[in-house]
C-alpha cells in the first residue's frame, strides 16, 4: 500500500512519465516476509531439550500481489491532489489481498519440498555461480567490464531482467 501511494504521489508531481505509470499500474508487485520455521524442526531434537538452546528458525519467502492498488485514484492525472489512503484501497480489497498472500504462504509451506526450496545451499546455488562468474570477469579485467555502463535503467528495462527489488 505504501508503495502504491508513493508511486502515485510521484506520478501526480510529474516525477514519473505516462509510459512508466501505465507500466507500474499493471505490473505485479513482489514483496517478502518472514516465515516461522519452528514447526519444521526435528521433533526428536525438540523432545530431548533442543528448544532449551538458542535457535533462530526463521525463513523468508516472496509473495506476489497482482497489481498496484489504486481504486478510484487510477484515473488521476499529474497536477491533481493526492487522495486519502482509503480511496486507494478499500477495507474489503485490503482483506482480499491479505488472504491472497496468506494463501500463497500456506501453499509454499504445504509443499513437500518446502525446506529444500528455502534451503540456501539449494535455492541460492545459481546465485552463487552467477556471482562467482561476475567476480572472475572483474578480476580478469582489473575492474568492471567495459560493457558495463552507468546508464540508469527504466523500471521497464529492469523488469525484463527479473524481479526489481
Model description:
- With 165 residues, the protein is mainly α.
- It has three domains: 1-27 and 67-88, no CATH class; 29-65 and 90-114, no CATH class; 124-165, no CATH class.
- It has helices spanning 2-12, 18-26, 43-47, 85-88, 91-110, 114-118, 120-123, 125-141, 155-161; strands spanning 29-36, 58-65.
- Strands 1-2 form a two-stranded antiparallel ribbon.
Unreliable spans? none
- Summarize the biggest pleated sheet: 2 strands, antiparallel
Q: What is the ordering of alpha helices and beta strands?
A: HHEHEHHHHHH
Number of helices: 9
Rounded to an integer, what's the Rg over CA atoms?
21 Å
Widest β-sheet, arrangement of strands? 1-2
Distance between the amino and carboxyl termini? 16 Å
Write the layout of secondary structure elements.
Blueprint: H1 2-12, H2 18-26, E1 29-36, H3 43-47, E2 58-65, H4 85-88, H5 91-110, H6 114-118, H7 120-123, H8 125-141, H9 155-161
Quick recap:
This protein is mostly helical and 165 residues long. 50% of the residues lie in helices and 10% in strands.
Keywords:
single chain; mainly alpha; 3 domains; 2 strands; two-stranded antiparallel ribbon; 165 residues
